[in-house]
């Protein structure tokens, strides 16, 4: 059984990591090598492209942090969770919901929706 909360917390930690070397370690442990990410604004395939997407978010929103909204849930190899992006400790102006497919407990595909 998938622990949706653990996956979601690790995913948010990855997106919040500003140290490139630490972020690459988190990425390698959380995602399959051929993992994919897609949302209405960007998409990436594999660790290097997903890392570049995360880095671009840090460059565009240097003082913002991701945080979870509500409780992640899932079943089988599927996980769903909502998040916000904004100043730490404040209501984030950017919100969304991500749907993830896992492969052996690691992210394989993530599809993000902006609310």
TrEMBL record:
The record places domain SnoaL-like at: 9-109
Write one Pfam family the protein is assigned to: SnoaL_2
InterPro entries in the cross-refs? NTF2-like_dom_sf (IPR032710), SnoaL-like (IPR037401)
- Protein name in the entry: Nuclear transport factor 2 family protein
Q: Which organism is it from?
A: Microvirga arabica
């Amino acid at each position: 059984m998938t622990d949706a909360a653990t996956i979601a917390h690790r995913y948010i930690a990855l997106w919040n990591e500003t140290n490139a070397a630490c972020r690459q370690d988190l990425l390698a442990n959380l995602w399959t090598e051929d993992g994919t990410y897609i949302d209405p604004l960007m998409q990436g395939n594999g660790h290097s492209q997903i890392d570049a997407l995360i880095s671009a978010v840090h460059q565009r929103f240097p003082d913002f942090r991701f945080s979870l909204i509500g409780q992640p849930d899932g079943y089988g190899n599927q996980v769903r969770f909502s998040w916000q992006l904004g100043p730490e400790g404040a209501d984030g102006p950017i919100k969304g919901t991500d749907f993830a497919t896992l492969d052996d407990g690691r992210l394989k595909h993530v599809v993000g929706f902006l609310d």
